[in-house]
Design a protein that fits this description.
The complex is a heterodimer of chains A (about 270) and B (about 350).
Chain A lengths: L1 H8 L3 H26 L3 H9 L1 H34 L5 H13 L2 H12 L4 H8 L8 H25 L3 H9 L4 H12 L1 H16 L3 H6 L6 H12 L1 H25 L9
Helix pairs in contact in A: 3-14, 4-8, 4-11, 5-8, 6-8, 8-11, 9-10, 13-14
Chain B lengths: L1 E10 L2 E10 L4 E6 L5 H9 L4 E8 L2 E2 L10 E4 L11 H11 L4 H15 L14 H14 L4 E5 L7 H16 L3 E6 L2 H7 L2 E6 L2 E6 L1 H6 L4 H7 L3 E8 L8 E6 L2 E6 L5 E7 L5 E3 L9 E12 L4 E6 L3 E6 L1 H7 L6 E6 L4 E5 L1
Helix pairs in contact in B: 2-3, 2-4, 3-4, 4-5
The chains are: A mainly alpha (about 270), B alpha+beta (about 350).
Amino acid sequence: MNSQIDTIRGAEPLTLVFAFCGGLVLLFLIAPLAGMVLGSPFATLAETAADPEVRDSIWLTLWTSMAATLLLSVAAIPFAYLLARRSFPLKGLVSAIIDLPIVVPHSAAGIAILGFVSSKSVVGGAAERIGIHFVGGAPGIMAAMAFVSLPFLINAARDGFAAVPERFEKAALNLGASPARVFATVSVPLAWRSILSGLVLMWARGLSEFGAVAVVAYHPIVTPVLIYERFGAFGLKYARPVAALFLGVCLVFFLVIRLLARRPDHATR
Amino acid sequence: MLRVEHLRVRAGDFSLRDVSFTVEDGAYFVLLGASGAGKTVLLEALAGLAPVREGRILLHGADITRARIRHRGFGLVYQDRALFPHLTVRRNIAYGLHARRMPRALVRDRVEELARETGTRELLRRYPATLSGGEAQRVALARALATQPQCLLLDEPLSALDAHARGEMRALLRAIHRGGRTILHVTHDYEEALSLATQVGVIEDGTIRQTGPPGEVFRHPRSEFVARFVGIRNIIEGRLETPAEDRAGEALFVSNGLSFHTLTDAPPGPGLLLVRSEDVTLSLTRPESSARNCFPGTIREIVPARLGVEVYVDAGVEIAALVTPGSVERIGLREGLAVWVSFKAGAARFIGE
């Protein structure tokens, strides 16, 4: 730390200009969030936390995003491994398709998913017959969240797998392990940090989704939709405590997951 | 017996073509080749980790070219060891045993036994990142031996080790070999080949140029590449004696009744003395110079080389000297002529067994 301070202290003017730019960017990011939290008195926050509608929506948002992340990860992580390790025809096109949800406007993504899972579609109709209601239900929320957040998991996991030297996998195969065992005991553990980072990103991105979720399943209401609804109906004063509370809960969950998943770094031990 | 017939492999930038050689049971086969000659690809192809385009691999007569990796009977040790960084040494060694679903109690016993054999008992709780090069190499060997492979495949096992660790590793490899294990070892270092091999092969541009006992390949290279690669004409078998007194590393090496002076810090014992032919001087009378090794002999053969002329002198042991055609004319060198051969103690390199 000291050496970094010294570096900046003795830095050339250009570095100081860049550091000033960095300060402006950080201020731009922190100031609105800080303003939101500081603009919500504790009493108002406590009152908001006691509101069953707010509590239900925060809980719904947390678990649907978590469930969407975990469900999709079962297929997305092996797929990311395939993308990292094998070449196949149209791989470039497949990679572009994976990134598509990042560039598609989220309300448009919601419309696309609605068409896919509505009771009139093949998939939606089949799901309804076995009792799964996408439109206006938690499965619909999960589908919308997963659609927009999946690229974050796949890209992070793919980069993680690509960074694992293939020799480790070859050594494990040579020792008699099956490819599935090599994947589970060598590839995934060695790419774990990137995979975890992708899971957290996907989960966080799902939590914050508004556009696609509002189109597919406005009710039951998730917190981003609730914030928008309260803002539209009652104004900033009533939307801000919900937003501040949601931000706090997300930060706590984010930190807890990071702490729980922290593993010893054997490379530096 | 491992038999490789007309193997053709392509993997990444490397390709092997028409590679054929045989490794007898219990042999220590060292395959010599420069970096990029395809040595690692060859080991991976044998182990089933690189696709074979053409040719056959036979182990004890059975065609294993397309056999599943786990049924091939090869234990591969990579140059960088490829120890799993997230597992302890114990779990690294046990990996292949768990993969083969060996009961836990047996795994524990087997790991203890291997750790004893390879001197890694003190390391079992540690992680690979904390091991020295020599320790990591021992663990990698233990891990490869755990599944009791019929043949060990070693990729540059002594490179990146300091002199002390190299000595220990050589001793361990000899002990493993004495235990009856067939070993195929690839390297770019001819000293490794001479100190360990019972058979050597030389690989260039993805194909094998020559195979045979080390003495034969080194003394009688069949192609210019092999000659240039092995580079040493004079390989003298004998024994390093304890120096009478400490004279800054000067020691006596005795072979066939002749005593050679050499500079070494190796302990006394059997081994080889290596002298490059370009370091040997010929003269008609005993030279008055600082060279500690001077022997009278008779010219047995004069052979033109790519650069210069090689003169083979029988001085009790055969010694080759590389001279210019001008020198041959000036001194009048011819077969049957009595000459003196001389070279400095510093030009004679001892390799212990």
